[in-house]
Amino acid sequence: MSAERDWERTLREDQYDLPAESWQRMENDMRSWLAAQSRNANASPAVTRAPWWSALLRPSRWGVALAGIALAGIVYHFQAATPDQLVWQPGQQRFFDGPNSSEWAEARCEVQGSQAHITLARLDEQVVQLRLDQGQATFLVKPRRVGETFQVDLTKDCLVQVVGTAFTVGKDSLSAWVTVKEGRVRLQVAGDGQFVDRGGRAQCPSPEESVGQGSATTDSSLKDSGEKVAGGAATHLTVAVPSLVAVPSCNEPGPCVAVLSAFVRKHPDHPAVNEVSLRWGRLAARGGDPRDALVGYSHVRSQILSPIARLEAMQLRVREFGESGPVADSLDRWLSKLKVSDPIWRQVTGLRLEIFRRQGNDSSARRLQEQILEASTAESRGR
Amino acid sequence: MNQTSRHGDPGNVTVTDEDLAARAATGDERAFLELYRRHRRYVLTLVVRTSGRPEDAEDLVQDSFFQLHRSLGSFSGRSSFRTWFHGIVVRVCHSATRNRLAQRRRGDADAEHMDEERMESEVGGDGRDHASQHALQDWIQGCLDLLPILHRLPLVLHIYSGLDLSDISRILAIPEGSVKSRLFHARKRIALCLEKREAQP
Question: At B134, is the secondary structure helix, strand, or coil?
Fold first, then answer.
């Protein structure tokens, strides 16, 4: 039967589905959301008896009413006079010096510990976009409606969008990450989105490119924002950890490589050593010193960054040293342990494909290409 | 619920959707979750077909049900629950699509024009994007994705959801004549897209 005659039936009868665990997770999210809705409803029970203002009609209550009005006026006066209650304008950078608390229409911001610099990059009816420039702070984000987005820019190309639950984002001078406490968030890196589920953790790949380091620019590098919608639950964001040791922030090949390698050797136990080592490897590779780059990559030990460093080191070995054979063996062993769903699977497979092509093994390359395409199709269908 | 035999998940079919909606509107969480279980697969397919973005489908499904929960108080029962719920799902998807297009929009190019350009370029191209999608349903979804949202919505509601013209007209708030016209154009485009597939080796 031709496709033209068949397509309406196919469209009518075929259905998408998700894995059972995805449905279960969504149902759990739904339960949490319903519970939050229920709590909100209970917090403001409906008045079923006489209207509240009827009591004020009685002369005996006039004094109470007048006192209440006067008190409200006093409170309003003092609140309005507090700088923390000033409206936060888009483009404005706020400097919090020490523990502080302030509130604006979309969220409550609590600065903990040392200084924090936060810029409100964008504020309109649908999007609230914040940029953490420096320091640490906690946000209590008010519930978002459909079509509204709340996001925090962690680095130039890396941002977190609230999808509807609680999560923690952190940033120091070298790294930025998100850890999800409940539900899920979207982490968008260079335009590509990935969801991070409850208990998961993801890291921004270019920590040195912190947004607005020392700058108060208001231009947005965001793409594709505004798609995500948060649920009804309030969202807590805990932002940043100040660096206690001066970590080199240079990002150009040349002398910077020596600075980074010295830092790694001097502070082998520093929390930032993995990110610095990765940067060392990348800058050395860019600077035309692949051997030094391999040394830098070899210092990366963290569970999250070491696969990236390993892959980049393998790419160097193939492209700069022509070690296709040994690298292919390593890749095959690695691939046998990786799942298709692993985020790095595609890049590892891509390198294997490159080696097949370099070796002129067209049939294997074609087979691997089909495998990659099948994985893409299965992934899109699974979603 | 009579519709569950076709689209919904297996569940307690002795209680109608309308009854569950009434109970959920009074705060009965179990009734709401039952509605969710009955309709989630159907809504998932509907949002994929409508939005053309499988990667956002889970969020859109959740948003649809969040919105349903907020709107339950306004369900009067004049139309069936399913038809009424369609309106909610379509609005959620439409809103997400509009937001996305608004951000992609450049200069004077409006969203529909962009979609048309995309269709021309992709359908008229060498089809490499589709070469891996051997299954007909993938192709159909690919062709649907290329349709402008204005044409895609009536087609999905009519063919996948089985709604008649008057229901679609009410949901999309357009005259029935416009629904007919859009269906005609949508079918034509899908046929054109599928012809390209058949023409490929």
Answer: coil
Asked if A376 reaches chain B (Cβ–Cβ under 8 Å), the answer is: yes
CATH number (2.30.30, 3.30.450, 3.40.50, 2.60.120) of A83-239 reads 2.60.120
**pLDDT, averaged across chain B:** 75
pLDDT digits (tens, 9 = 90+) for B119-177: 443 333 333 333 333 466 677 778 888 888 888 889 888 888 888 888 888 888 889 89
Which of B66, B86, B104 is a domain's end point?
B104
HSE-up of residue A287 (Cα within 13 Å, Cβ side): 20
Q: Tell if the CB–CB gap between B58 and A377 is shorter than 8 Å.
A: no
The pTM (predicted TM-score) of the whole model is 0.39
B123 contact partners, CB below 8 Å, separation of at least 6 = B143, B146, B192, B193, B196
Query: A38–B92: do the CB atoms touch at under 8 Å?
Result: no
Q: E-strand spans in chain A?
A: 93-96, 100-103, 107-111, 116-123, 127-134, 137-141, 149-155, 158-161, 167-171, 176-180, 184-189, 192-197, 201-203, 235-239
Residues 145-204 of A with CB under 8 A from B: 146-147, 163-164, 193, 195
CB contact under 8 A, B100 and A373: no
Of B7, B159, B144, B147, residue with least CA distance to B85: B7
